[in-house]
Structures are given as structure tokens and as C-alpha cells.
Amino acid sequence: MNRKAPRIFVLVWAIVCLLRAQDRSSLLEQAVAALRDHRPEDAISALKVLLNSSPDDDKALTLMGTALATEGKSEAAADTFKQALRVHPLYGPALKGLAATEMNLQQYDAAKTHFEELLKVAPDDPVGNAGLGDIAFLRSNFADAVQYFERSGSRYRNDPRLLLEYAKANVALNQPLKAAHALTALRDDADGALHFEAGTLLASIKHYDSAARQFELALPTYPDQYAAGFNLVLARVKQQKYREAIDAGQKLVANGQKKAELYNVLAEAYEKTGDTKQAYDALRTATQLEPSDEANYVDLVTLCIEHKNYDLAAEIAGIGLARIPASQRLHLEFGVVLAMKAQLEQASNEFEAAAKLAPARSLPHVALALVFMQMNRPEDAVQLLRKRVRQFPDDYLALWFLGEALNRSGVGPGAPGQKEAVAALEHSVQLDPDISQSQELLGKLLARDDRFDAAVLHLERAIALDPNNVAATYQLAQVYSRKGDTSRAKELFAKVSKMKADDRANFTNGGLQQILRADPSM
Question: Residues 508-522: what's their mean pLDDT?
Fold first, then answer.
């Protein structure tokens, strides 16, 4: 018997094991290289050889799962990652691969479980934290999403989709500055759809300059070229970069994108640059493209009013009403035009028609009351506005002009009407403290009751809101004079020495334009 045989056998076995180890290492390297070069089929071929001899090789199984996932075979990939985890339950690469594959399969509960298992062994893992941030965002758990994304380090910033989710989550948490800052990291070569979403998000938080850049980046690849271009025009207008808005809009028109909403926005840009004729023409084109859209007629009539072209305004309002007879906004605008032309009876008819069409809206009722005042029917105005305030106690416009109507009806200090007017105005300025005229009128009536300190507060507020409010300046000068502060009174009187402070000749016209500007729907 040869005693050297066992030693030779051991040596041979050691050599075989070494060769197998070298073969395993070589095959793994081949697979890794193939995956790196985007050749998943070559990786799969190499890994099949290895797994035939070593079916429980956790690294080879994980690489196989990765290759299958790369080929879009998500179900098979998930099964392979699970097989690797049965061999090595806390193997990080397998947990990452499985969770990512489950995300692709929209198996979010399972993915969450496996990302959490990953973080138990590697709390700072970027993939695990970013994955949990993604899931939290999809479930509207925005605070958790932000925390997980930030724990992932640069992982979310390097993924345009996750970066956009991070920004959206911050907007939802009322952190617009964080969102806007984050989106500065969005790569220029990101998908056009992501740039469009980013632009829309930035516009929603009024970061129009950044929004415009995102819409510009979206334009080359975004499927809806008009949507990207139109939003770019809007953002430029909001930035008050009207020339740039016009350039962007004209490119759309040149490309055949002739839509009413585009011409409407272009009209605003033209008007802001002083090109009123182009503004008129753009709005006329908009009415021709969308003859049933009241907004274009309303905007065109408003433009005419701004330039005191009342005859053209009346003509356009008439055309609009012929096409849209049930438009309360056009009846209201037509009434304003007629009032400007001193055709008060016809104006009151239009305001009454508007009020019937939209009984809940304040403007038609207030406008009708204004016309009543101009027609020397202040009591009718008071009754109309009292009824309105009983129905809508928090209608700041009705309260404001009820105070005005009572004042114009001739009430005096201490009279019930005077007290009612002050109470109405106090409630009005409480509801909306940013209107110079209502603050001025309240200050005037308080001064009439010798409530000088309160009057000063409201008159100073009126002047702060509108430094050109001559009536408020004059009233404030009178109050300081009556308080004995002659120096301050003299200073204020000097500002209005060449003006008639209490001139109400244009009361109706000015009041109508003021309330139209105050209406958010106009």
C-alpha cells in the first residue's frame, strides 16, 4: 500500500479547488464587465456556467438577478434575488436588487420591507434611503419623504425623477424656497417631461424666472410643443419680461400654433410694451378664434376702457353679448362702458341683468348702487346695499359702498346713518385692509365724529397704500390742524395746495374701475 496516495489526493483536490476559485472569479468578472457595458445577455451566459456548478453562490445569484432586471424580466429577477437571500438573508446587494425590482413591479409594501431590512444592516445606505423616500412620496407622506431623501446624500439629487419628487414634497410642506433651490440641480439633459413638470411646479410657487428656464429646456424634447411654449410665454409675462414673452409667442404663431389663449396672453405683453395696436389686434384675433369665450371680449373691452375708447368698447361688448347673451361679465362690462358714456339708465339695465345672472356676485349690485348715486338716488343705493349686506354680511365691497352711499345721503355726526356708515366701513377694512379709498372714507367719517386718533390711523394707512390719494392727504391735514399739530398740518396742506382734495366729479367712473380691478375674475 502506497502511503503517499492520500497526500497526493489532498494536493490534487487543493489544486482543483484553486482552479475552481479562479474560474469563479473569472466568470464573475466577465459578468460584471458585461453588465457595466450594458450587455446583460453576455452576463447571463457567464453566470449560467457558474451557477450550474455552484447553484448557491449568493454573489452570482445577485448578479443574475441584476442582469434579468436589466433585460426587463422583473418577475424572474425578483425570484433570483430571493434565492440569493435564502442563501445569505442579509446580503445587501440582493436586498437592494430585490427592493428595486419590486418598485418596478409596483409592489410597494414588499419593496418597503426590503429597503427597511437593508437599513437595519446599513442605516446610511443611499439606495435604501432614496427608495424609502420614493415610497413615502408616492403615499403622500411628504415629511418622511424629505427626511429619507436627505439621508440618501447625493443619491436623490443625481436622479432627476427623485429630485423632482423631493421638490414637490417640499412644496407640499410649504417649503417653496427649498424646492426652488433643489431644482437648480436638475440636469439640463433630463427628460423633457421632467423639465416641464419642474417648470409647472416653479410657476406654482411664483419662481417664474426658474420656471421659464425649465420650460425652455423642455421645448426640444417635450411631446406637446405648444404646452411647453405657451407656459414659457406665461412665465415670461409673469417675470415682466414682455419682449421675451412676445418673442416666444411669435415663434409659436409662426409654427402654426394659433390659439385664442396665446393671443390673449400676447395682448397683455404688447400692452405692457406700449404697443396698444398690437394688443387690440391680438385680442380681436382671440375673439375670432374662440367666439364663444367671454374672457377675450371682456379683456378687449377692459383694454378699451383703460384707453378711454368707450365707443369701441361698447361696440365690442355688443358683439360679445350677441354671441353670449347669458354672460354676466359682459353685461357688467357693458354697463361700465355705458356709465362712462353717461348713459346711466342703460347702464343700470345692464347691471340689473348681470345681477340676475349671477345673484351671488357682489360687483353687479355695487355697480348698480354707484349708478344710483350718480343719478342722485342715494336712498335707492342705500336700500340696495343694505339688502346685499343682510344677505352677505362679509361682502367687503358692499360694506365699503354702503358707507359711501350713506355718506352721500347727507348723514351728520351722531346720526344713525353716520354710525351705520362707520360700522360698515370698519367691517369692510377689517375684511380687506389694503384698499386706500375705503381707509380714506373711514378716516374722514371718524374725524367727523371727533375720533381723531382713530382717523389718523386709517388716513395714514390710506396714504401708505396710495401716496397719490389726495383726498386722504387733505383729510389728514385737516385732522392734524384740529388736533393742534399745525406744523404737520401745514406740511400736508402744502402737498395738496394746488389740488381740490374733495373733488368727486369722477366718483362713479373711478369707483367702477376700482371695483373691477378688485374683482379676481375680471
Answer: 55
pLDDT in tens, 267-300: 999 999 999 999 999 999 999 999 999 999 999 9
3-state class of 507 per DSSP? helix
User: What's the CA gap between 106 and 506, in Å, rounded?
Assistant: 66
CA-closest candidate to residue 229, choices 202, 191, 259: 259
Its pTM stands at 0.77
Where do runs of H (alpha helix) occur along 392-451? 396-408, 416-431, 436-448
> Tens digit of pLDDT for each residue in 147-205?
999 999 999 999 999 999 999 999 999 999 999 999 999 999 999 999 999 999 999 99
Largest separation between any pair of C-alpha atoms in the chain: 137
Q: Are 285 and 304 in contact (CB under 8 A)?
A: no
329 is written with which cell numbers? 361679465
Classify burial at 160, counting beta carbons within 10 Å of its beta carbon; exposed 0-12, middle 13-18, buried 19 or more: buried
**Dihedrals phi, psi of 182, to nearest 5 degrees:** -60, -40
User: Exposure pattern of 368-390 as b/e (b: 16+ CB <10 Å)?
Assistant: bbbbbbbeebbebbbebbbebbe
Could you give the 3-state DSSP secondary structure of residue 433?
Answer: coil
State mean pLDDT over 475-480: 93
Percent of the chain topping pLDDT 90: 74
Give per-residue burial for 253-289: e unless 16+ CB within 10 Å, then b.
beeeeebbbbbbbbbbbbbbeebbebbbebbbbbbeb
The span from the CA of 47 to the CA of 33, in Å, is 12
List the grid coordinates of 337. 362702458
| C-beta of residue 386 within 8 angstroms of C-beta of residue 406 | no
Residues whose CB falls within 8 Å of the CB of residue 397, separated by 6 or more in sequence, listed in order: 362, 363, 366, 428, 515, 518
Taking a C-beta distance cutoff of 8 angstroms, is the pair 422, 441 a contact?
Answer: no
CA distance 269 to 212: 15
More confident residue, 398 or 60: 398
Whole-angstrom Cα distance, residue 63 to residue 61? 5
What pLDDT, on a 0 to 100 scale, did the predictor assign at position 468? 86
Q: Which three cell numbers stand for residue 440?
A: 380714506
